[in-house]
Each structure stands twice: as C-alpha cells, then as structure tokens.
Amino acid sequence: MNEMDKAPRRKLLAVFAHPDDETFICGGTLAKYASEGVNITLVSATRGEMGRRMGNPPYLNRESLPAIREMELRRACASLGIRELIFLDIRDKTVEFTDTDQLVTRIAALINEVDPDVVLTFHEKLGGHPDHCAIGKAATLAFQSTGHRGALYFITFGDMMEHPEPYGYSRRDVVKIDVHAHLQAKLTAYRDHRCQTEIDEWVWLADHEALTRFGKYEYFIKGNLPAQRELDDLFDYETEIRGDSQILYR
Ligand SMILES: [Zn+2]
Predict the structure, then answer these.
(1) CATH number corresponding to 8-222
(2) What does pLDDT average to over the chain?
(3) pLDDT of 209 over the 70 cut
(4) Which of 11, 20, 66, 188 is a Cys-bridge partner for 49, taking CB atoms 3.0 to 4.6 Å apart?
C-alpha cells in the first residue's frame, strides 16, 4: 500500500437539476478532481425528460427520452470519472413546485450518508433556470440543516465570475479552477450527451477546433467560507477561518 492509498479519499457531492448540468457547467472541474482520486457522487433531481432536443436528426421521442437521457448521462459520468449517480426522480421542469421540506430532508440524508468534503450546487438566485434555482435553494438549506463540516460552493456559468462585482461579489468570494488539462474529458462528455449536443455543430468539429470553445477556467462562489482570500482549489479551505456558516446572497 503506498501513501496515496492510506490517505482518506476526498469526497465531493454535486446536487444538480438535469442530466448535462454536470458536464456543461463544471465538467472540467469534475474531471480534474476525479483524476486526482476524489470520490464524486452526482445527484440529478430530474431525468431531463421535458427537454426539447431529440437529436439531429431526431432519434428520440417523448417516450424514449427519459431512458436515453439517463443512458447518456451514465456515459458522461464515465467520461468525467464520476463514480456514483443518484436520481431524485422529480419531474423535469417542476422542481420549484416540489415540497421544499421533503426535498431538503432527502438531500440532507444524502449529505449525511456521503459525508462529502465539498458540496456543489446551484446558486438560488444566479441559477438561470427555475429547476436550477429550486434545487440550489433546497441543497443549501439541507447543507445548513446538517451543520455539515465541509465546504459549500455554487456553480456558475462560463466566465461570468471573472468579474464578480456586478453580481455583488468580489474575487475573494470566488474559486477559480484551472481545468485546461481536462477539457478533452469535458468534450467527450459533451458528446456523450448526444441528444442535447447534436444540434450544436461546434461540438462535433475536430477535437482541436471544438476544444477552443471551452474556457480554461471554471468558477465557483463560496457558499459558507469567508471572503478572506482567493482560492484556486475547492478542497483548499482548511486554513480558512470559519464563520458561522451564514450563507449570504447578495
Ligand atoms: Zn439544467
């Protein structure tokens, strides 16, 4: 047994809304940590069965969509190195109408079971889609209700947090992850979500051309850590002075 084997495995729990959120929004980061041996559990609230993309040319219909989206998500998880996938089986596009207390209780149970060092979810105001905001709000409440020891971060789109001030944040609220070495895995996962990406011609260009469409960084907002210093690693929070885990939305 070498030293790596003796070290406790780091764990990351991602609580998202749809199959493809993990790939399109933070696939580079998930691939990076998986490659470093982090045990990643992905929770998808829905199966994305109300999606309107059916392939190009269409190879799906409303009946076949949920099973195919699940299969394509499983492939994407394999490409990114995600080990465990859990569906909450909430109907797509209805997360905001789900009983919040029940949802919080289910997610809190998962947090207690997985015992993650890092929890990722959507920002309840910057999520961009009602399902995203609703699952982010529930996961945040769940995280708070457990009094969990780990760090909570909110995923963000593209490079919007390269300049966080318009959103009421500073650079010290943001974690900027260098994912340039993991963009090939991200591209493979994009293509695994075939019914969602087939209509996007750039995804299917030669690799070297398609890869230029990705940013080299992915950005996260600190959910329960003080804005004390700029971080470039989601797990590098042990030296932060912990506040009272008050989560502030600005
Ligand atoms: Zn989504």
Answers:
(1) 3.40.50.10320
(2) 93
(3) yes
(4) 66
